[in-house]
């Protein structure tokens, strides 16, 4: 099995609903997100790639136009936790590349959320 991954970065604000009023995530705050898109394949294409990294520019465009420097509560159709964001981006990416196996989201240098089916 061949595995590739590529990181993407964006900055955005959000609030988290459903947490106690004194929880810091209830307040408006932001993150410098790191998104990792992970793809796998049993075989390589004619050029020797799982997917050409250059072709992942489509995913970067989604992040840049829909999420970067936005308030996520205004643009996402789901709660704005890292877990939900990972699933949302997984579903978007898998429409372009059926061999997406996971999306990881980091909000801070010490935390990651991952979604895979």
UniProtKB/TrEMBL annotation:
<protein>
    <recommendedName>
        <fullName>6-carboxy-5,6,7,8-tetrahydropterin synthase</fullName>
        <ecNumber>4.-.-.-</ecNumber>
    </recommendedName>
</protein>
<keyword id="KW-0456">Lyase</keyword>
<comment type="similarity">
    <text>Belongs to the PTPS family. QueD subfamily.</text>
</comment>
<dbReference type="Pfam" id="PF01242">
    <property type="entry name" value="PTPS"/>
</dbReference>
<keyword id="KW-0671">Queuosine biosynthesis</keyword>
<feature type="active site" description="Proton acceptor">
    <location>
        <position position="25"/>
    </location>
</feature>
<feature type="active site" description="Charge relay system">
    <location>
        <position position="69"/>
    </location>
</feature>
<dbReference type="InterPro" id="IPR038418">
    <property type="entry name" value="6-PTP_synth/QueD_sf"/>
</dbReference>
<dbReference type="GO" id="GO:0070497">
    <property type="term" value="F:6-carboxytetrahydropterin synthase activity"/>
</dbReference>
<feature type="binding site">
    <location>
        <position position="14"/>
    </location>
    <ligand>
        <name>Zn(2+)</name>
    </ligand>
</feature>
<dbReference type="GO" id="GO:0008616">
    <property type="term" value="P:tRNA queuosine(34) biosynthetic process"/>
</dbReference>
<dbReference type="GO" id="GO:0046872">
    <property type="term" value="F:metal ion binding"/>
</dbReference>
<comment type="pathway">
    <text>Purine metabolism; 7-cyano-7-deazaguanine biosynthesis.</text>
</comment>
<feature type="binding site">
    <location>
        <position position="29"/>
    </location>
    <ligand>
        <name>Zn(2+)</name>
    </ligand>
</feature>
<keyword id="KW-0479">Metal-binding</keyword>
<feature type="binding site">
    <location>
        <position position="31"/>
    </location>
    <ligand>
        <name>Zn(2+)</name>
    </ligand>
</feature>
<keyword id="KW-0862">Zinc</keyword>
<dbReference type="InterPro" id="IPR007115">
    <property type="entry name" value="6-PTP_synth/QueD"/>
</dbReference>
<feature type="active site" description="Charge relay system">
    <location>
        <position position="107"/>
    </location>
</feature>
